[in-house]
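Form 7-S
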Amino acid sequence: MTDDLFRSDAYLRECEARIVHIHEDGIVLDRTVFYPLGGGQAGDCGRLVLADGREIAIADTRKAKDAEGKPTDEILHVPAPGQADLLGALKPGDTVAAHIDWERRHKLMRFHTATHLLCHLVPQPVNGCSITPEYARLDFHMTDPLDKEALTAGLIRLVEAGHPLTVGAITDAELDANPALVKSMSVQPPRGTGTVRTIRIGSDADSIDFQPCGGTHVANTREIGAVVVTKIEKKSANSRRVVLGWTPTS
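Output:
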């Protein structure tokens, strides 16, 4: 099992860790600040610094899978190609310092939080999501047209309002009693511990968005910065895609 430190503090940039396993697909640590691909959000990149100062470049982070292809509770740090000699010298029990590419991660946090604001502006089910450092997109299950300028203005208003973000949790039973909290039609929140992680934007009395989510986010909407709607597409008769990007000043 990998202790996923980013769940409780998305601002952690590094941590000391111990190698548990070395698989063909990646390195498993006992604890990590690296977020694995999931929920539409890209996996983290960064580096593992060995005890002697040498560094292993990490190109991606994924959830490990069992023989049936189901995700496990281990996280794989996927090395960049061309590091066979370094990898060959590793062994379980070795200590490393895990460092994420913070600039890239912070863009992911800003975009991910912005997609939650979109869910407030477009209160329709989501049937697709992708969050990268360069852009983010949500596919809404709907037939009505959307206005790019109006959505951008709404995002700017919510960003500048400086709404706080709170990480919380609800029980599986509470989620079952409130299925509308799940905005995504294609991705279900992870279960198994009896509680489900939640993200609330705004206060309890003035909630902008509240939904289960395992991704990384900024602490206040003002931190999102200069994000705009760059494109709206009709993907099908029942799907409208909204694409977010950075303004040149971001």
